[in-house]
Amino acid sequence: YVDNIDDFMKNASSSTVNKDKKYYGIGKDRNVITIQVEGLQNFVINRKYNGKEITPNLNKLINEDSIYFDRYYQQLGRGNTSDSEFVSHNSLYPAMDGQTYLMYYNNTYYGLPWILKDRGYTTAAYHGYKPDFWNRDKAYPYQGFDRFYSQNDYSITEPVIGFGINDREFFKQSISYMKATQEPYYAFLVTLSSHHPFTMPDEYKEIQLMDNHENTLLGNYIQSINYADAAIGEFIEDLKREGLYEDTVINIYGDHFAISSMDEDNKRLMTEYLGYDYDFDEMMKIPLIIHVPGSNVYEKISVTGGQMDFLPTVLNILGLENKKGVMLGQDLVNATEGFVAQQTYMLKGSYIKDDVVFSMSRDGIFKNSRAWNPNTKQPIELEACREDYERAIKEINNSNHILKNDLLKKFIEEREGLSNEEEKVDTRVLP
Ligand code: GP9
Predict the structure, then answer these.
(1) What biological-process terms (Gene Ontology) are attached (predicted)?
(2) 370-372 and 31-37: which strand pairing?
């Protein structure tokens, strides 16, 4: 599958600016904040539990100046949360032979932080946990981050929730760093409080659980994600108070699922709660919200997409091109059809489209796989999935080949040479 890699990379690169694209540049030149929320699944959005909204602040945000993508999927490899950020920033698939941030941390990349740095942005990652977890401290400079504010930069105040600093404190202390950052900036914030197993101090449990959800993962999760939502709500208000809100684009997405459909008890609990079968397509669905204050944009986009599509989608909003690198995803605002290849939990060859979910069998035998229509839940003839199954494998193999051979290095160098040439030509034709 990799013998046409040059063509594959060229096809995955963009060099033409099309200003007619929908929402192109509505966030141009603004600061950019991305919040990657631990364990945020899509099913909690706009849903009430026991009469209370689970995520009132995200729901409110979605309803004003936002684009909400409600069929957006995680696309992880072996690096879990670190893959979520890697895929989102780079529009490449993560490795399966190890963790990308460990095995390929010092490759050449050209993802969102680099692209913004090239436009004069200051870039920083914020995460209140150990700096070497997932090898972030070594990987971040190669991802294009000027600065990494880790656990060492935060005062870890009570209550500690789960792994460490609670989300409310995390956001408050992050804002003080952001205020001191030269604009325009890219701030990438990774939250922590809603981490498995979602246990919360009693005084922060705002939602009364139903009896059958006491001491269950679902019950804990509802309370924990409700807390994370409250922390995000406070962060937005603090941004407004500090004058950091208006001139900013705020992206919010979940890193990966919280409740596994592969565990029989949790699957049953979720199926009862949702009223439909809790399968991979619901488990791996995470929300993506792009909030552009003052834009008067409100749209729910239901084309199927995944973390691979984050970079091209955000670049369209910012009115920017990725002139040097490759992107295997697509801009979901202007896409007419979606395609999301999977390789973890759903095995390699699996994919999700607008009207198909194909889940490769664990024994690796195609005819033992499952396929269904996510809208009707009806089974789909497997042979009808073969072409896209092959496409899914090809995309992942080619992406993996790029990582293994650090192919972006040469590709970017060539592009840099080309853009210099272009500039020379431009100078000559200018009056
Ligand atoms: C740890 C946090 C959680 O730094 O990002 O990682 P996870 O355990 O979800 O992969």
Answers:
(1) lipid metabolic process
(2) unpaired
Distance from residue 292's CA to the centre of ligand 1 (Å): 28
Looking at residue 324, the DSSP 8-state letter turns out to be S
For residue 328, how far is its CA from the centre of ligand 1 (angstroms)? 25
Q: Are 420 and 334 in contact (CB under 8 A)?
A: no
Residue 431, pLDDT > 60, answer no
For ligand 1, say whether the CB of 195 is within 6 Å of any of its atoms.
yes
Residue from 34, 81, 123, 304 carrying the catalytic annotation: 81
ipTM field:
0.97
Q: If we measure between CA atoms, which residue out of 90, 112, 238 comes closest to residue 169?
A: 238
Q: Give the C-alpha separation, 355 to 381, whole Å.
A: 13
Is 190 a pocket residue for ligand 1 (Cβ < 6 Å)? yes
151 pocket-lining for ligand 1 (C-beta < 6 Å): no
Token couple for 82: 């670190």
Q: Give the residue whose CA is nearest to atom 5 of ligand 1.
A: 81
Nearest atom in ligand 1 to the alpha carbon of residue 39 is 9
Is residue 173 a contact partner of residue 155, using CB atoms and an 8 Å limit?
yes
pLDDT tens, residue by residue, 180-235: 999 999 999 999 999 999 999 999 999 999 999 999 999 999 999 999 999 999 99
Alpha helices by DSSP H, 1-135: 5-11, 56-62, 80-90, 100-103, 112-118
Report which of 148, 175, 151, 149 is spatially closest to residue 164, judged by C-alpha positions.
Answer: 151
pTM of the full structure: 0.95
> Among this protein's residues, is 199 annotated catalytic?
no
